[in-house]
Specification:
With 226 residues, the chain is of the alpha+beta class. Helices cover 44% and strands 14% of the residues. The protein has a five-stranded mixed β-sheet with strand order 1-2-5-3-4. It is elongated. A hairpin with a 5-residue loop joins strand 1 and strand 2. The protein has ten helices and five strands.
Length: 226
Amino acid sequence: MLHKYSDGSILRIMDASTLIHIPIWKGQRNIDPEHVKNIKESTKAYLLDSGYKIIRYEEDNIEKSYLIDGQHRLSVIIDYFKNNTIDEYFENPIKDFKVTVTEIKVNNEVDAIDYFNKINNVKPIQYKEDPNLIVNKYIQGFNKKFPGMCKINRPYLSTDKLREALKHRIDSLKKLSVDDFVKECEIQNRKMIEYIKTIKKDENVIKRMIDLDFALAWDLKWVATI
């Protein structure tokens, strides 16, 4: 650790070859190929050695790490390793290099979205058009209404699965306020609870859903009704 900031995040060093294996957080805006191209044309990969931000949080008692800022620079570094670039700057081809990253631990997806919004100066037009950024605010509303229900396995609902389902309904979703979306989720949850009560199977998942009063993970087809 090089430094600890007042918000609890830490600055540390890691190998670029390690950084490229950290997945990009799915709430990130879509990669802009033109921006990646401009970075490639203006600098060398090994000079992209700072400005990366990583979040860490637990999913089903397993701590996961995601890159939440610096994805375009990371794309250039990934290509550097992939294409076996030989550069006179290095004595050997594909020599690894050090990068500085800022890491912070957050509690959940809602905190991750809050942190992303805090560190990113995203143009208003992107918030209106980028599906990932649009979906983020609905994910926040969902998590606040159903706290603790977004986990990987049923009876809980995976945030990743919900995010992908909402992105397929992005045009309809944009017509709803977050409050109206949450109300629709409440209605669908109540319908799903009543439905699974009629199922005769003695499944542990059904019992747990009824006990939790949460059944939206049973079948994500409910998203298509919004």
